[in-house]
Records
---
Amino acid sequence: MASMACGSFSLFHERVSPLRPTTHLRRSAARFRLVEKSRRSLPPRYEANSEPADPPVADTASELESVVVANFGEDNGANISQSELFPALPNKSINRRIALTSTVAAFGLFLSSRLEFGISLKDLSSAAVPYEEALLNGKPTVVEFYADWCEVCRELAPDIYKVENQYKDRVNFVLLNVDNTKWEQELDEFGVEGIPHFAFLDRNGNEEGNIVGRLPKKYLLENVEALAKGEPSVPHARMVGQYSSAESRKVYQVTDPRSHG
């Protein structure tokens, strides 16, 4: 009986005794892994004063696509094209257009400089209206007395050319070479002592005023404008600037009244 009681007590003692150390450690380890797995699955929390982490930087196009989808969502990220993510690089077509534009601009500057500085007295003479015709066609007239050797005449040629092109349909522009003896009477009639000498005539051939020498372009322009409008007088009836003396002229007979020879 005693032995049976001892066996029963021993069996009962094993069943109610505390867990063995190995079993306890195993269950603790399993519980720790479960908690750690759950914690990793949760979204990251930020400290109260910490700054949010910078978004990831993609090194390749595929990684960039993943970042776009992660930041904007799959639907919004799909609408962003590659051209919006990467700046377009210049191609050969664009380079050709740039080169063509530069060439056209350079050619325009060349023509502008030619118009501004390349006009000569010969150019003005070739476009001038013969004096006899100007007196008969019923238009007002600008008569310029000049000479090839006149430095001021050559300097003013570009300005005269511009004004002439602007008003040639309404005003006659005549050039008379003071070296041509054919115009001796006109030299005396208009009192030419210095050149360039500009005489402004109305539609009937009557002189309304004159300007002599180098003067601002506006004086010539305003007088020609008054002639074109048929006004009874010109705003600058008598103006004198730097000029070349007509006494220095080289007198000889010229067949062509507009010749620069």
---
Amino acid sequence: MATPSHPEDMLTQVTQLWSMLDEMSESTPESYHRFMQQQLEDAKQYCAPPEPHLCLQTHILDPNEKSLFINLCRWKRVPAPKSPTDPIPLSAGLLEEVSDKAELYSIIDIAYNPTVLQREENQAEMDHLISLTFKYIEEHYNLSLSPSYHIATFTLKGSLKRMKQSLRGGPVPAPLLNKNMRNELTLDPMKHNLGDKDHNNATLLLNKNVTQSKVHLIEEIASMELPEEAITPAYELTIAKDANRKPLKIELKVELPKVSSVSECELSISRDDVIVEVPEKYRLQLDLPELVKEEATTATFNKGKGVLLITMPIP
């Protein structure tokens, strides 16, 4: 079905669709039921939030040298490439500069379809994907990055809330290059009908015969997500100290009586804050009294008591 260019055409197509569904529900109710179930499942996956996958640490060499953390995220909203030779769609948040008590660094969030990130099972393909990610960041933000990197021990730099807001407010999925497109790059603004708020959208295209790849662009549809307002759970924060009164660790107990499984919890730890989220039920964000080792943090959930215990060692 062609994309309508006028509101009247859109109304006509919607009317035709509803007529078709009414006819299907009467003539083949089983097919109608399967069709509607599939649409609901597709909508559920489309509205699912991005999830952290792994975090890369590298360095910006120019214009200003500093550390760069790249959060690679899984997001079903980003379409998978149609074939191994097609461009790889991605969704990118804004490049953010962060200054904490210890260092100055930048963060960017990059989301791919989960099937793309399964490439880490093949080291050569994963190295290629990371190389293309670096190239995208360099071209999009006019930076020079160090080619060396390492995978951090934590999967997400910064808070889960910040990452979700960054990706949901960032550019719509744009195609990266396939393996035959490495040498000829240029940036070209993407034009679509979302208005001025999407002025940051961009895509990588071939320099020769520049044509936009026919990947489906994903648009934000906020009305599809109607979460209930989360409440702040009861909690207890304590600092364990040694015999010399030196702080050793921070323990945070969070009461989550409506939670039946730890899989419902989303936990994000940084050096100086912690966020606990249970979608549509609870949300707790705390600034920590001491800097902690985020990579050494552990969390256990007591299902019987409905209590989440987070233990954060202090360096």
---
Amino acid sequence: MALYWLVQGCQTGDSLVFYYSGHGSQQRNYNGDEMDGYDETICPLDFETQGMIVDDEINATIVRPLPFGVKLHALIDACHSGTVLDLPFLCRMNRNGQYIWEDHRPRAGAWKGTSGGEAISFSGCDDNQTSADTSALSRITSTGAMTYCFIKAFEEGHGATYGSILSSMRSTIRNTTGATGPVSSVVTILVSGGSFGGLKQEPQLTSNEPFDVYQKPFSF
């Protein structure tokens, strides 16, 4: 209901923000629109009885209805969140800041874009990774790693463009060692071969269309 509320009545000039910090997961995809065979999900408080919210549902609710002149930013601090908005393009960036846009449009032709608006998402990690909740960053209290790094990018003067933000976030994660706080999913970390000695996640950027991430100014 909150997702429907966010986009209801939106019109040219509106700027929308969807921020989620919590548990994320995956489940088997059966309609063939996922490159890795899994849907990404977020887990609301009642997910054990009412089910998880699937990326297909998030896309249909807050991405596809966006009309021309409306901008949506999503900040998703959760495990397996790389493509949780099911946006068609993912910015694959290497350690040197070089990038390419990966085409994630479903082979079957399902439309995952907007109705003329703009949708951009920063997420805590790739689809096959977990996202930490740790004290290793602040050295004071446990924080969501993605949220902390996003804020830190602006505090350190790297908030000018989408590329500078993403590069800063990924650099902060890579340079963090000694992650001693609790993580979002201990079992997943152990099964996937993760480590408590450092953060094993790579923040991601997805969009409804490709753009020059170092030239496009960031603006809500």
---
Amino acid sequence: MDSNKYANNNNGTTSPPPLTSSDHSLDATGMRTVDTLLRLVPMGLCVAALIVMLKNSQTNDYGSVAYSDLGAFKFLVHANGICAGYSFLSAAVAAVSPPSTTSKAWTLFFLDQLLTYLTLAAGTVSTEVLYLAYNGDTEITWSAACGTFGKFCSKATASVVITFVVVAFYAFISISSSYKLFSRYNAPLPDPSKQLQIPAFHG
């Protein structure tokens, strides 16, 4: 057996060689690729939700309706546009270099959290509008509109569902970026001078 490959332990067993710098480089490259792909997928989803909602309008004998008539849907369009732009930029940053500095890690952590809550808010508000459109509100004599504008409601629902898929992706991305950030810090060591002193009782 080649002694350069394996080192003998005291008990006669052998142990694998330690990881080299090239092994760490391969691990870092793999993590960088996964991070880039995780950020590119939401970009495509945001663009899809954006296009579906932008093209959402319907005209029939009862009138016409478009996404721009409802503030919640306009908010959804803007949120998905911001999400698509940020996803592209953050994927480019992740592909070029990992967050090697603490400031870069903090920046990605903060922006990932912001995008998660932004898309969640847009999806939640739009869901409330869709609920009223499907079910109406008898207390204010607001009748259901989706019976009349079914095509419009179907497209709006598809856009909202895609947005919530984006939320799920960004929730995972936020967990990943928070782990990468806070794993840089060591757990605080206990202060011996502040340890709790328990008096001993003798019988």
